[in-house]
Design a protein that fits this description.
Largest sheet of chain A: none
Radius of gyration of chain A: 21 Å
Structural class of chain B: mainly alpha
Oligomer: heterodimer
Distance between the termini of chain A: 60 Å
Largest interface: A-B, 32 and 36 residues
Order of helices and strands of chain A: H
Number of domains of chain B: 1
Helix content of chain B: over 70%
Helix content of chain A: over 70%
Number of strands of chain A: 0
Order of helices and strands of chain B: HHHHHH
Structural class of chain A: mainly alpha
Distance between the termini of chain B: 42 Å
Radius of gyration of chain B: 20 Å
Largest sheet of chain B: none
Shape of chain B: globular
Strand content of chain B: under 5%
Strand content of chain A: under 5%
Number of helices of chain B: 6
């Protein structure tokens, strides 16, 4: 399944690993921030209604 | 119905909430297909060997690094001319995503450059303009953080965005302005003679579509967060004023 990357295997794997790692961290951070903002606003609005 | 209706935060929240699941699905599908196809099922290039596979992450990231700034430019112009808060917040929301794309483009470019050029870095016109774009992203994000008055921050960052656009455009067209430099010419062109081989073209285009959709999804989520946080701050301020008046 794994393609034969020859003598450039390390370069190619590092490039993919780094890119996918940065994208994964970015997605997690953005989504977590979004959920936190939604939760904080909802909690505050609930508190105001009481 | 007008496009400007979506400058209304409530309408923006409603529409973006409907669109987001579709954009996420499209992004994940296109990214998975483009990257798996490119990495596992495309041949090596006769000159670059297996390093050609880096094209499926490097080119889309570079494309989005530039286009993110151009999107910020458009949003900033809308803020400066029409004073729609959602557009200013969208520009702010896009900056960290554009920064991440710039880091990926610079890092994968350096990794690709070492075996092909013999160096991780060269003061080549495109590389240098990209590095300057990276610094502009950092400055733009820092400027938003540094100013408490959000309208003033939006004004100043919009002007910074206008200035930085010179380097965003330079990053794209530097290879055409200067013939010297190590970086190759445009990878994708409307001219079929200059384009990359068909076997690399389709997975690369699908990967680019994945990066575009991922960018849109992340900007929508981040803009929604900015709108919600802005509302939270406004409510707290309103309640404080009401308490003081009582």
């Amino acid at each position: 399944m794994m393609p034969d990357l020859g003598k450039y295997a390390f370069d190619v794997l590092v490039a993919y690993g780094l890119s996918l790692g940065i994208l994964a961290v970015l997605v997690v951070l953005v989504v977590a921030r979004g959920r936190r903002a939604t939760r904080d606003l909802a909690l505050y609005e609930q508190g105001r209604k009481r | 119905m007008s496009l400007w209706e979506y400058a209304n935060p409530q309408k923006f929240m409603r529409l973006s909430g409907i669109l987001l699941p579709w954009v996420w699905t499209g992004a994940m599908a296109a990214l998975s297909l483009g990257l798996i196809w490119g990495f596992f099922f495309t041949p090596d290039d006769f000159r670059m060997g297996s390093t050609v596979k880096i094209i499926y992450v490097h080119v889309p990231a570079a494309l989005m690094a530039i286009n993110a700034w151009l999107m910020m430019l458009l949003a900033s112009l809308i803020w400066l001319v029409r004073r729609h808060h959602v557009s200013a917040l969208a520009a702010k929301a896009a900056a960290p995503i554009g920064l991440a794309m710039t880091v990926i483009a610079l890092a994968t470019g350096a990794i690709w450059g070492k075996p092909m050029w013999g160096a991780y870095w060269a003061w080549d016109p495109r590389l240098t303009s990209f590095l300057i774009l990276f610094v502009f992203y950092l400055g733009y994000i820092a400027l938003w953080q540094a100013i408490d008055d959000k309208d003033l921050a939006a004004d100043l960052t919009s002007i910074l965005c206008l200035v930085g656009s010179v380097f965003a455009l330079l990053s794209r067209y530097a290879v055409q302005f200067w013939s010297q430099g190590l970086h190759q010419g445009a990878t994708f062109s409307v001219d079929a003679e200059e384009n990359i081989a068909d076997v690399f073209w389709l997975p690369a285009v699908i990967s680019m579509a994945g990066f575009v959709l991922l960018f849109v999804a992340l900007v929508l989520v981040n803009t929604r967060s900015e709108v919600q946080l802005r509302r939270l701050v406004a409510l707290k301020r309103w309640d404080r004023i009401a308490e003081e008046a009582a």
